[in-house]
Design brief:
Elements lengths: L1 H15 L1 H33 L11 E2 L5 E2 L6 E3 L2 E2 L1 H36 L11 H16 L4 H16 L1
Helix pairs in contact: 2-3, 4-5
Length: about 170
């Protein structure tokens, strides 16, 4: 029974994580947003494209073989191999509009808000640790001092370098 309770407890913790909740909200908002984008494509983009041809992008298709027969009532190809490039164009436009709206109305303002929030945070006053070049310079100087016979300097420098490395 305790394992059963721990499994349920683990599942509850999994569901209550912020990432899972955010993902669920994103899926719901994305599904609702899809309807808006589809309405924009059908009500705005398709008529603009329709100014150059058919308003329904699905009607744009090309036959790849010479033996394509077209039904005169529907305009559909009956025989042969054809490419529905209008459907691909419609899907690409829907994707581009969705990506642009998400970027300009959601991502860009959120990044600006985060930048303002980060700018409001106090700056960390602790000095930065030594860079790799500074550490290598200290090691070089310690080795030169050891070669010249001054053994006390390398040990102190080595201890300081080890202490700095262990703090990171």
């Amino acid at each position: 029974m305790s394992e059963h309770k721990s499994v349920l407890q683990g599942f509850k913790e999994f569901l209550m994580r912020g990432n899972v909740i955010e993902l669920a909200v994103a899926v719901v908002v994305g599904a609702a947003f899809t309807n808006i984008v589809n309405a924009v494509v059908k009500g705005f983009i398709n008529p603009i494209v329709g100014a150059f041809g058919s308003k329904n992008l699905d009607n744009y298709q090309t036959c790849l073989t010479a033996t394509c027969a077209v039904d005169k009532k529907t305009g559909q190809y009956m025989d042969g191999i054809y490419v529905l490039w209008g459907s691909v164009l419609s899907a690409a436009l829907t994707f581009l509009i969705t990506a642009a709206v998400v970027y300009f109305l959601m991502i860009l303002p959120m990044n600006r808000w985060k930048a303002r929030q980060d700018a409001k945070k106090p700056v960390d006053a602790t000095p930065a640790g030594p860079t790799e070049i500074e550490l290598l310079t200290e090691i070089r100087d310690a080795l030169i001092a050891q070669r010249n016979g001054n053994s006390a300097v390398p040990e102190a420098a080595a201890a300081a370098i080890i202490a700095q490395k262990t703090q990171k």
